[in-house]
Amino acid sequence: MAKAGSGKAESLKPRLPRGLFDRREGDLLAQARMLEVIRATFGLYGFEALETPFIEYTEALGKFLPDLDRPNEGVFSFQDDDESWLSLRYDLTAPLARFVAENFDGLPKPYRSMRAGYVFRNEKPGPGRFRQFMQCDADIVGAASVAADAEICMMAADTLDRLGLAGQYAVKVNNRKVLDGLLEASGLSGDGMAGQRLAALRAIDKLDRLGFEGVRLLLGPGRRDESGDFTKGAGLAEAAIERILAYVSEDASLTGGDAPSGDVFASWEEAVGGSEIGREGVAELRTIMSLCAAAGYGHDRIRPDPSIVRGLEYYTGPVFEADLTFAIASEDGQPIRVGAVASGGRYDGLVGRFRPEPVPATGFSIGVSRLFAALQLAKSPLVDAAEEPGPVVVLVLDRENIADYQRLVARLRGAGIRAEAYLGGAGMKAQMKYADRRKAPLAIIQGSNEREAGEVQIKDLIEGARAAQSIASNAEWKAARPAQISVPEAEMVDQVRAMLERHFEDGAA
């Protein structure tokens, strides 16, 4: 849009939408290394790669179906030309359920699937909350046995071990059936108690952050936080509060690395009382922990935890969460606990939405963006964002002979060496600065004299930078001509490869 009387178009202001981010090569390469470790670990367990599109019919996203008056609530949605609602995927599990249902007869059952990709949340962004972020999922569809849940927990532990986090995480396991049984035994069954059940589960979920007294307040009248904001409580009777607190506080060693003393599952059976669903959940947890122990996964890696709640309307059985146990320093030097970087559980109802019969399923999702940020803050070498070396840069000194420079570049590329010809309009000095900004290890220089002689100059920019630190004057610099050699064109590729091999193990920039 032009300003009045200016006759000149007004420039657009470059703005990145809130909750989104740009990423440059260093971070992309580091994340790719991390993803390769994750995919390789999933592959050891026999999981098959699958890619689903970013866009699904909104109705396929289940509980995230937007209200008619607010079609973009929770998900980014738009209408197709046939007036059907489409949405950017909210997670990677709902698209998997649609894919399995659509291809059910042609898939092996159980079906092991792994996916990685970006998901999108139309919600208010904030610290650690993005509108676009990456997840990496692994799911087993068609296995009703909790042996599948145990294997998912083992794979989560193996993945974190292979990422260099051995001894710095815990895979915590609970069961929604146990929680349902606990609430039933606490007098919270029936449709009329739905609100109190939800409030109680949310209170339990805050145990790590608020401690027992904070949970007690949220189970009762409510809690006022440090800022003065008040959260209404579940309003439970004192007997119900004591039963729930006894369950979540049973055996303090559950939050540590040592094996729990006594039979914690017997205590949980007492907590769920006569609830059939609750006792079924405890039995499933016993089996999961027994299978993990038999495979060599001790309590220091996989352990039961009564505070794990997960998806209040989503999961139907075992639920798990992988927490990093180390703290990182904030900008002001205060320790920050990283917390959960992966989570999941059994969701036996999701695929069945598309089919007449129930289809059991279990899986977990790694928050790639969150895990990557945590590894960066922990200064893990796996995600060192240091940029890899740039390409060899061929300087273009005679633009009328650009074809000659492209020929040199083609020879380097033909030998598997990253290379580019300078395509700007600047002179030699600026071209050298460009090569430096491109982190080029070498520069190829050929003026008219070199061309007539059939030679090129190869300048080792890495050695040149080192030499520059010890050369005091410009005269010394010119006399030394550090790290620069003249070679016949026919020997250029071999000389470039030899110089690269001195700097990089694989011999390629």
UniProtKB/TrEMBL annotation:
Pfam family, one: tRNA-synt_His
Cross-referenced SUPFAM superfamilies: Class II aaRS ABD-related, Class II aaRS and biotin synthetases
Positions of the Aminoacyl-transfer RNA synthetases class-II family profile domain: 33-389
Family matches, as InterPro entries: aa-tRNA-synth_II, aa-tRNA-synth_II/BPL/LPL, Anticodon-bd, Anticodon-bd_dom_sf, His-tRNA-ligase, HisRS-like_core, HisRS/HisZ, HisRS_anticodon
Catalysed reactions, semicolon-separated: tRNA(His) + L-histidine + ATP = L-histidyl-tRNA(His) + AMP + diphosphate + H(+)
Gene3D superfamilies: Anticodon-binding domain, Bira Bifunctional Protein, Domain 2
Enzyme Commission number(s) from the entry: 6.1.1.21
Keyword Ligase found: yes
Compartment(s): Cytoplasm
UniProtKB keywords: Aminoacyl-tRNA synthetase, ATP-binding, Cytoplasm, Ligase, Nucleotide-binding, Protein biosynthesis
GO molecular function: ligase activity
Family per similarity comment: Belongs to the class-II aminoacyl-tRNA synthetase family.
SUBUNIT field: Homodimer.
NCBIfam families: hisS (TIGR00442)
HAMAP family the record matches: His_tRNA_synth (MF_00127)
Protein name (record): Histidine--tRNA ligase
